[in-house]
Amino acid sequence: MSKHYFFSENPTGLGAEAKVSAEARFQVHILLTHGFSLLSFASMTDVFDAVKLMNPRSEVQVRILSADGDEVFTRSGGRVLPDAALEISQCARGSGTGPDLFSSS
Question: Longest Cα pair distance anywhere in the chain, in angstroms?
Fold first, then answer.
C-alpha cells in the first residue's frame, strides 16, 4: 500500500477553492522499497508526465529514492536504480529544502 504526503506552505480549509498557478513548480520524491508494485510506480510517474504535457510551463522534478541508494526490486523481480538515497532532511518541508510531495511505495 502506498502512502502519500502533501506538504503545503499555505493549507486551505475544507470547501476552500484551490488556486492553481499557470507556472507550476514543485518537487516530488518517491521512496521505493523492496517488493513495490511497478504498476503503482508507473501510475504515479505518469500523472507527473501528464502535468508536464498539459502545461509546458510547469516544472515538475521527480526524484526516485531508496533507503540506501542501491537498486530496488519490484514485486515481479524487476530492478529500478534510484537517483539517490533517502536523507532525513528530504522528509521535512519546514526547513524549506524538502519536497512538495513525498510518496513511499
Answer: 44
